[in-house]
Amino acid sequence: MEQSIVSSDSHVIEVPDLWVKGMPAAFKDRAPKAFFDEKRDAWMFGSPEVQIQAVGGLFMAGQQPENLEKFRKAGFAVARPGGWDPLERQADMVTDGVAAEVLYPSLGLGLYCVEDAGLQEALFRAYNDWIIDYCQKVPDRLYGIALISMYNVDHAIAEMERCKKEGVVGTMIWQVPHPSLPFTSEHYERFWAASQDLDLPVHLHILTGFGDSMHRQTAHGPKRFRIGLEQTREIENALFELIFHGVLERHPKLKIVSVENEVGWMPFWLGQCDKGFKRHRHSEKVQMSKLPSEYFAEQIYATFFNDLVGGKMFSWWGVDNCMWSNDYPHQNSTWPNSRAVIERDMAHLSAEAREKLLNTNVRKLYKLNAPVSLPKAVAA
To answer: Which residue, 32, 81, 29, 30, is CA-closest to 53?
Structure first.
């Protein structure tokens, strides 16, 4: 029997009118929409208050990079229906050999840089209602992550509690907070505590919030490449603040998940953090009783999907905290060749290590009851 694999980071493609239909009356006129931009010759999504983004790359699983312009022009017409239809999705899961998936948004990632708290909460609630319904159609295979706005902590906790009752397995907040609300702020304390009490991991996904990555749609030339590299710095900054400002010390059962930031850089970065902590811990007062790498080992998880360096390192680091993913159906996705990429990156590992990275770590973190077998493909 083939190795059972579970994707810790896959994506839906939200239906284009989700926020038009799902918003309360007070916000309907401000809802982001999909539209064709004649000047860019491409399908876009956004509004004056929601960062406008091209959508073509969201649909390009299995395609070559040179096809990007074609997909930008065609838009939703060429998207795989599994992005918004959970029954159709099962056929694509079978193609990739995936037994179950933890699901994140696509268009919704850009909503984290909305600055109006009421609007963002309404946008997130509409998405959460939709993803809950989506997953409930295939409840033993698909598991949703709720989007949480952090401007108002009381509202954040209430939405988190509501979504847990409906079956979500975690929450996602911004990876780069609003400048007025850094992770060093006491603003988050009750949210961290509630997340710990509810046993809901908190996820930091690439391309969310107020970092340089929010400008990727307007960057060109070398600057566009630099933004791609800056994304690693964004998660480094977030994890540094959570570790060195005592968040993980104060909330020892809190689980943080780095999503789609890959992992090849992590052991070096943690080693540098450990080195600095050992050198200065007696002269600089920080709320930490352990090495940074020990907090990682006990409270932080990370997803990866196409990380050759990370794959090589798993022979000596990370097998208890890292989780494979396929990033379906995005341009960077390993679908439909995930098993070939897994073989390329992890063939040298022991069966026990592969089992943890591909299957048991994600099941344990989210307490999944998904079958080990593949779903039955649904005929179109």
So the answer is: 32
DSSP 1-63: -PPP-EEEEEE----TTHHHHHS-GGGGGG--EEEEETTTTEEEEEETTEEEEE-GGGG-TT-
Residue 108's closest CA among 30, 180, 28, 16?
16
| Cis before 336? omega within 30 | yes
For the chain, the residue count is 380
Whether 380 has a pLDDT exceeding 80, the answer reads no
Nearest residue to 189 via CA among 238, 149, 237, 242: 242
Output 217 or 150, whichever has higher pLDDT: 150
Question: Residue 344: in which H helix or E strand, if any?
Answer: helix 338-346
Q: Is 115 exposed, middle or buried (0-12, 13-18, 19+ CB in 10 A)?
A: exposed
Q: Which structure tokens are listed for 53?
A: 């983004």
235/203 Cα distance (integer angstroms): 11
Compute CA distances 336 → 96, 209, 347, whole Å: 5, 30, 18
Q: What's the pLDDT band for 1 if we cut at 50, 70, 90? A: low
Secondary structure of residue 173 in the 3-state scheme: strand
Domains plus CATH for the chain? 6-11+83-366 (3.20.20.140)
**Above 80 in pLDDT, residue 379?**
no
- Structure confidence at residue 188 as a pLDDT band (50, 70, 90): very high
**Band of pLDDT at residue 343, cut at 50, 70 and 90:** very high
What integer best gives the mean pLDDT of the chain?
94
Using CA atoms, how far residue 346 sits from 308, 319, 378, in Å, is 9, 11, 31
